[in-house]
Amino acid sequence: MSEKPVDKTKIRSAKKMRDLMTTYYLDALSAQQNNKQVAWITSGGPVEPLVAMDIIPVYPENHGAMIGSAKMGEDLCGKAEDMGYSSDLCSYARTDIACSVVKGGPIGGLPKPDMLICCNNICGTVLKWYEVQARFYNVPLFILDTPVCHTGYSPEIAEYVRTQVDEYIVFLENMTKRKLDHDKMTQVGKLSFEAQHLWQKVLNTTAHKPSPMSAFDAFFFLALIVTLRGTRTVVDFYKELIAEMEQRITEGISVVPNEKYRLLWDNLPVWYQLKWLSSKFSQHNACLVADTYTSAWCGAIKYIDENNFLDSIGQAYTRIYLNIGVDQMAQEVLDMIRFYDVNGLVMHSNRSCKPYSFGQMDIMNIVRKKTGIPVLMIEADMVDPRSFSQSQVENRIDAFMEIIKQREK
Amino acid sequence: MIYAGIDIGSITAKAALIKDDHLLDTIVIPTGYHHLNAGIRVFDTLLQQAGLDRQDISAVVSTGYGRASIDFADKAMTEILCHGAGAHFLHPGIRGIIDVGGQDSKAVLLDDQGRVENFAMNDKCAAGTGRFLEVMARALEVELDQMGKVGLQADNPSKISSICTVFAESEVISMIARQEKRENIIAGIHDAAAARVAILAAKIRIRGPIMMTGGVAKNSGMAAALEERLKMPLVIGSLSQETGAIGAAVLASGLQL
Asked: Helices marked H in A70-154 — which ranges?
């Protein structure tokens, strides 16, 4: 009797990850019945105090990614435009605002928030977006303002942000009518720190040739470090994921069957075209081994002091990839090009994400000058498919791969 | 050995034959609705014109937007690589290409071997493409192939501020209503389109000498506006429209079948 063939290229941990996310969303959706509070928070916001205070964090941006992947972005973006929002507004903001009103999307909308936490380290759009939602749900909004660090972290910035971290804690204490348990805060901080380390380790496994996973997998496994950092769940899961990746490396299992070319991706994913893009690159024997996006959730770990968490998160949350100067962003891209040993850089000029797409032209020129590797720029949007032209993107990818093949001959 | 290149563009289909590193013959026909039929027609007509048979051809490379439809080609390659190879074949010193076709425009940077170093293409927008000029020619009741000549007679070029084809058309219509001179409006249109293309050239930091290829190279007014914008003369040969097909034939000769 022959056994059913197992697809070895499939990553087994994906199923568990899906289950964990389902549990997380079920917990969040049933929070009210369980007398738990829900806070909506921006993807780059300091979530650890929420976890320490037993408040369930919910991420409109992660929800936006789900909407994009479920190909529900066009409809919801259109609904927001019908409400009067500009089509130039970020598609995460548009879909979130529309979803709140129509209760649409893949999970019928997010649970109603008890409070909103907005950190502008990722963009300026979140300020107005969260103000709109604070009015809609009639709940308090806390804004953590992190100045852009073009060059360094000055004592003035440090003091300014540190003061706000204290105000943040007071805000949460008022909201929950409980005092922060500092021992628990320390414990959550350590778990967050460990999770970020492990996430970096997951991403590092793709430096191996051939790569055991791709950026497309990272886009998927990212959801845990975004939504649940500070919990034991993330730490345990990433340990298993690392073990699986190491096993794949030992057994020589690669995600792209004949990996010949290695590429680096810049900017958010094109959520509704992941499958097509992944197979398009695979056809050319190319693997997107790394990206600047998923590494943002462990990029500032060097600033965290796990034994002095609240004192150090000001700096860690201010000096993230999107909140530093273009020269520094270019340096991080150059470091990744070297570490992952890639043959080319693919930049997604994302109509929605202005801070991410601004400066790409300069980064492109710096990369070309310092490394000489080909750089491709494709225009799209992370959630709104109306800003994506498949035949144009296909033509560019084909031409880009032809150039790489010609160079590597 | 004879090699063929077939370039199926959005408006015209082109084919070229090369033999022992010499250009044998070329042809241009309208594409029409069916890409594969256009490919068969352009290939067979060219063979007939050259007194050859399909068996005489060692390899075929297809390119252009319809490249994937040409099922009898040995390989399909993008027009970016083909324009590079074609320009290098026609003029080995060329380092930059401005290709303005019906559906898109692009700027390509070549190394001294004719290999593509970098390229930039227009975004999801028709401004700065052949289509843009077609729409404008219709609004102004000028034959497309006369546009260049008419535009060069302008004494005071109009200023088109809209970057979108649809808005630019209504801007042009209001200029017509104001009875601005047709020559001046056309010169303004050429400059507006050239400005869009020049941005692509700047993106890749284009180097000279630059060859202009694609159907729009036949428009002398547009070429002059581009030279003005790029502050550099453009090399425009009589085979500008066929450059992609010629390059495809060159690349066919390099295929290892």
From this structure: 73-82, 91-102, 125-137
